[in-house]
Amino acid sequence: MTLSVRFFAGRLRLHSLRHVTLLSLLALLITAGVSTAAAGNGGRPRVAPEARIVSVRMIDSRTQDLMVSSPAMKSVIPVRIILPKDWAKYPKANFPVLYMLHGGDDDYTSWTRETDIEKLAQSSNVLVVMPDAGKAGYYSDWHAGEPRWETFHTGELVRLVQRTYRASSSRAIIGLSMGGFGALNYAAHHQGMYRYAAAMSSYVDLNDPAVRIALALGSQRDGIDLRRVWGDPVKDSNVWQAHNPSAMPRAFRGTHVHLSSGDGVPGPLDLHRSYDQVLVGAAAEALLPKSMEKFASSLRFAGVQVTTHFYEPGTHAWPYWQRELHIIWPAVMRSLK
């Protein structure tokens, strides 16, 4: 459209702008837009390609692993789903959806591997969708152009489960660590898409110096340059802030936000973990509560419905997230009715 506008603007200058009426200018612009959209498509407007399922593997009667071909990602992405209890019984019914996002250095199998989500969902009429997001994808459309995780998760995948699994427009999203950061960003970027968004043990403020250090260390370990993710922290600060939950509290209006984290002190739920695991989990969790509490206050000030659970003791570990999943499950189910 931009090139077409410049072309016509040039021609208008040649013929003298004073002889061109507003109506004729609008007609030229409309014609240019139609021509651009239809170019190379036999006069028909272009339609963006949709994600499609290339294979399905049955895990059990209600759990399936999908391999999804994603135009946005230019690759095939695995997604695990748990069907609603009455999905087969009512073949024309639509069902609400719960998206569950995994943390860093993990994958789409983590929720079923580490928690009893299948048992929790046993009596539920909610479609549970657990997509892969890369071990360090940051749930973002990268500044470098690709990967485009957000486009896949909030666009392609949402439409796919709607047309293939009869998903309704009633949605909730929860995530832990990097996945909680993703859940918050998705809710803020797509107001009204999710009724409920929960972030467990997640960084919520990209301006927090401790978070910057943790991200730098983590990205260095993973061999990722964060400038490819959100650009240069100074020159592209607007991009960083557009992915910073704490910088956009008003964007969460209309969504119930739940925030939870431990204090970083090891407790009884850490007894069966190795010393190294406990040490790393303690350090990772200790930097979160203060910024999450501050974020919760800013959300309340902005008129957002917020619940919190800041527990003691607690480290960055699955036993605590399993417990938190049980705590919030009734509220998640109520939000989807």
Look up the CATH topology of the largest domain.
Rossmann fold
If classified by CATH, what would the architecture of the largest domain be?
Answer: 3-Layer(aba) Sandwich
In helices, the fraction of residues equals 40-55%
- On the 0 to 100 scale, the average pLDDT is 89
Rounded to the nearest angstrom, the radius of gyration is: 23 Å
Q: Low-confidence parts, pLDDT < 50 over ≥5 residues?
A: 1-41
The first-to-last residue Cα distance is: 43 Å
Strand content: 15-25%
- Give the H and E element order: HHEEEEHHEHEHEHHHEHHEH
CATH superfamily of the largest domain: Alpha/Beta hydrolase fold, catalytic domain
Biggest sheet details: 9 strands, mixed
Main structural class: alpha/beta
The total tally of domains equals 2
Characterize the overall form: globular
Could you characterize the architecture of this molecule?
- This protein has helices at 2-14, 22-38, 110-114, 117-120, 149-165, 178-189, 209-222, 226-230, 237-242, 275-286, 289-301, 318-335; strands at residues 52-58, 63-70, 75-82, 95-101, 127-131, 167-176, 196-200, 256-262, 306-311.
- It is an alpha/beta fold and 337 residues long.
- The protein has two domains: 2-38; 52-335, Alpha/Beta hydrolase fold, catalytic domain (Rossmann fold, 3-Layer(aba) Sandwich), CATH 3.40.50.1820.
- A nine-stranded mixed sheet has the order 1-2-3-5-4-6-7-8-9, sandwiched between helices.
- The longest helix is centred in the C-terminal third of the chain and has 18 residues, at 318-335.
- Residues 1-41 have low confidence and may be disordered.
